[in-house]
Amino acid sequence: MHKPESHIDKTKRVISIRDLHKSFGDNHVLQGINLDIYQGENIVVLGRSGTGKSVLIKIIAGLLKPDTGTVQVLGKNVAALSYRELEQLRLKIGFSFQSSALYDSMTVRENLEFPLLRNSRHLSRAQVTSAVEKALSAVGLAATINQYPAELSGGQRKRIGIARTLIMQPAIMLYDEPTAGLDPITSDEINSLINDVQKQYNTSSIIITHDLTCAKATGDRIAVLLDGRFIQTGSFDEVFGSGVDTRIKSFYDYNFIT
């Protein structure tokens, strides 16, 4: 499945990364990353496990600090923000964790209410309920509102996790291995949902994955991360077309894409 056409505004950079380096001891994870993400764009960061993909989005979200280089998110230098400023910026960033990160002791309704009650205390009960129902409808799971996470499938929990991020109406979505551990049919549903979120909410997204099917289905642009650097960026066909780098071809062959 190829990515549907998106409406990308290349006059507006929502994330701008320049000469980003990050090491952990002698492990030089990121070695000079440069990347721009534009308004309305889904960009896939593709690479094997341990290549620094998750480190990159943790730096973007301000969960890790870079050693050198800059990350600008919505016009703000993330590393230079105070704690309060960083908290305000994070309200505009939806983070979809690989584990879904739902609270097992809470119903679906309570899981979705939690960020609203914590960050938007001016809302009435009716407004909170309306926001929860809208977010659940957006991911196609309105009927699960009174269920607990343990009663849901892995794919449903993933959707609820995405709904919980959408309830804050983020400008940016960060997806960490969104199809990991899911069967092919459920993975296709998650890929379609990522595209639906982009269209309905006009989000800009970074999708971290090593799943080429996910990359092909969701990415307006692919950035291949290897040895701490992006070795190629472009559309799926540009990255995996004729004359492809042998290091990229081996990754393609491993995924058995037809």
Q: Could you characterize what this model shows?
A:
The protein has helices spanning about 55-60, 85-90, 110-120, 125-140, 155-165, 185-200, 210-220, 235-240, 245-255, and strands at about 10-25, 25-40, 40-45, 70-75, 75, 95, 170-175, 205-210, 220-225, 230-235. Helix content is about 35%, strand content about 25%. The longest helix is centred in the C-terminal third of the chain and has 18 residues, at about 185-200. The model has no long low-confidence stretch (mean pLDDT about 90). It has a domain at about 1-90 and about 210-258: Rossmann fold (3-Layer(aba) Sandwich). It contains 9 helices and 10 strands. The strands form 2 sheets. Strands 6-7-8-3-9-10 form a 6-stranded mixed sheet, with helices on both faces. Strands 2-1-4-5 form a 4-stranded antiparallel sheet, covered by helices on one side. Helix 3 packs across helix 4 (about 125-140), helix 3 packs parallel to helix 5 (about 155-165) and helix 5 runs parallel beside helix 6. It has about 260 residues and is α/β, with parallel strands linked by helices. The N and C termini lie close together (about 10 Å).
Based on the model shown, name its key terms.
globular; 27% strand; six-stranded mixed β-sheet; four-stranded antiparallel β-sheet; alpha/beta; 258 residues; Rossmann fold; 10 strands; single chain
Radius of gyration: 18 Å
> How are the strands of the largest sheet arranged?
6-7-8-3-9-10
Overall average pLDDT? 89
Distance between the termini: 10 Å
How large is the share of residues in beta strands?
25-35%
Structural shape: globular
Largest sheet: 6 strands, mixed
